[in-house]
Amino acid sequence: MLRDFFIGLSKNQLLNTAAKNYGLKMGAQNVVAGTTIEETIESIKELNKHGISATVDNLGEFVFKEEEATEAKEQIVKVIQAIHDHQVDAHISLKPTQVGLDIDFDFCVGNVREIVAKANEYGIFVNVDMEDSGHLGATLELVDILSADFDNIGTVIQAYLHDAQEQVEKYRNMRIRLVKGAYKEPAEIAYQDKKDIDANYVRIIEWHLLNGKFTSVATHDHNIINHVKRFVKEHNIPNDKFEFQMLYGFRRELQLQLAKEGYNFCTYVPFGKDWYGYFMRRLAERPQNLNLVFKQVFNKKTNTIIGVAAGAFLAGRLSKGKNKKNNR
Ligand SMILES: Cc1cc2nc3c(=O)[nH]c(=O)nc-3n(C[C@H](O)[C@H](O)[C@H](O)COP(=O)(O)OP(=O)(O)OC[C@H]3O[C@@H](n4cnc5c(N)ncnc54)[C@H](O)[C@@H]3O)c2cc1C
């Protein structure tokens, strides 16, 4: 239920707009690297010191106007320039809706083409993130079009989708990020049970590790990570064929440990003013992440509209949950 609630909140445009005016709040500052490119480059330098690379995401949601999409594209091009100028070990992650997918397909392809071409000049990779299933077909089409002209582009395959295996086979020659999947999808197209999602996740990871070009295993799940470690050892898969990825601010100790053990490790580094939807999706994924909110709402007396709304909701939810438990 909490998952649905936070996914609902992540789609709330009003709260999204309000959040932009308040800066990083409610604990978002623990999982978002900063609001500017300069702050983000500093965060990347810190990661690089530990042998960790970065994939940088300029946060942005609800883009329905061409000017906003163009602005987002220009900002991403600036990030590419900054990565090159500072010679940090980083690449780009972008969401097609941020650069116009909901406005016009060809306009979006033009924007992503410009980004990929600029990145290509500097040998920087661009990952096209996967959003909800409503955007899946268009996103894959965009990747197909641009990968015909560039080899510094890749995308994401979500294990909760029934046809994830087909996608993995189709994109075997591409650098691919494999994830469980972050959105709420209907049972007709996606597994709903954690057990089924995990099993499909392991299946596509193993297949891609054995047959794919380069596999990014993006998860915080230590069971999956340990399984991958055993699997690559058993099958003599060299470290340069895969990497682990996690989100900025999550499981820091494990991130450092994996890098120390000699695995390629890449941290997903989101930044920007538009942190709200991203943060809500992280809360949806794992109830324990709520401690980030509680610390902020109760310790710092944050009185933003969003903080109070979330705090009130959570208090209500928790007392309801408690009553339920007591009734059992
Ligand atoms: C780098 C990266 C990029 C992503 N890109 C996309 C994308 O483009 N599209 C998309 O749909 N989704 C994306 N996701 C999100 C992904 O699909 C999942 O929703 C998200 O990663 C949660 O699933 P999980 O695999 O981390 O493990 P979960 O199923 O959330 O957790 C499994 C277990 O791992 C442990 N665990 C998990 N998190 C923690 C923690 N913080 N601290 C301690 N233990 C923990 C717990 O034991 C938990 O039960 C991305 C995720 C990452 C890491």
From TrEMBL:
Q: Which Pfam families match?
A: Pro_dh (PF01619)
Residues binding substrate: K95, R281, R282
Recorded metabolic or biological pathway in which this protein acts: Amino-acid degradation; L-proline degradation into L-glutamate; L-glutamate from L-proline: step 1/2
Superkingdom as given in the UniProt entry: Bacteria
Residues in Proline dehydrogenase domain copies: 41-289
CC cofactor: FAD
Instruction: Please list the reactions this protein catalyses.
Output: L-proline + a quinone = (S)-1-pyrroline-5-carboxylate + a quinol + H(+)
- SUPFAM superfamilies, A to Z: FAD-linked oxidoreductase
Some GO term, biological process aspect, for this entry: which one? Answer: L-proline catabolic process to L-glutamate
Q: Where does FAD bind?
A: M130, Q158, K180, G181, A182, K194, T219, H220
According to its UniProt record, the EC number is 1.5.5.2
Q: How is the cofactor bound?
A: Binds 1 FAD per subunit.
List the GO molecular function terms. nucleotide binding; proline dehydrogenase activity
* Keywords of this entry: FAD, Flavoprotein, Nucleotide-binding, Oxidoreductase, Proline metabolism
Annotated protein name in UniProt = proline dehydrogenase
User: From which organism does this entry originate?
Assistant: Neobacillus piezotolerans
What high-level taxonomic lineage is stated for the organism? Bacteria, Bacillati, Bacillota, Bacilli, Bacillales
